[in-house]
Amino acid sequence: MSDSSSTVYSVSSDSDLSTDEDTEENGVSRDYKSVNISVKEGALEKEEVDVIVNSTSDKLKLRHGRGSRALLEAAGNGLQTECDQKYPTGITKGDVAVTGPGNLRCKSACHGCLKKYGSNDAEKIHMEFISKCLKELDSQKLSSIAFPGLTTGFHKFPKNVASINACRAIAQYIDDNPNTSLKEVRFVIHPEDKETFKAFCDAVQTWDLSPNTEIERKVLCRFLINQITVLIKVDKIEEEEVGFKT
Where is the Macro domain (predicted)? Predict the structure, then answer.
């Protein structure tokens, strides 16, 4: 759940956002202002990009998690050594640990640990982590960044929530930082994870980046019960657009 001061982005059309003709089978790609946002299937550790983002444990033990382990194997053990030396006590959930690339085809790596869905501030921390990674990119005057499907595995976020929140965070960062050096964002999804790939394709294809703060102001909390997302909000029930009312 975003805090009340956050901008929310809702589905509609927007003149600033254009889509190319890629089909979902090949991924999707679209531009928001001066930034290209794309979704592709692939191995994150093989991407050639300025910054690679990695989700791991709060102790920065890079063998924890399939994606992080693959990244470490490609980068070499020096990546773990650098984490141990720079962050001997680990990091707080939501913070960013910055390392060199090791043998990866990037210039910098951002590592972080997030919270499980339904725990306190899990969505807020997810979005803020993305913003922190983009801020780190800007601090180094870099232009391209690759994210995995953050929170869709171990953290148990509904895939549509994870993908939409990622789009929100990126759009808000671009809006808040008009002089950003960011030019390209890639979501790189493991080829076996078809559901996450589809969710991110759908989010990037259909998510409009125009503000709708009124909606978010009314939402008090959101949580998961038996794979059903429940929202509690303050509003008039007669104005709700739902399939069934009591």
Answer: 24-208
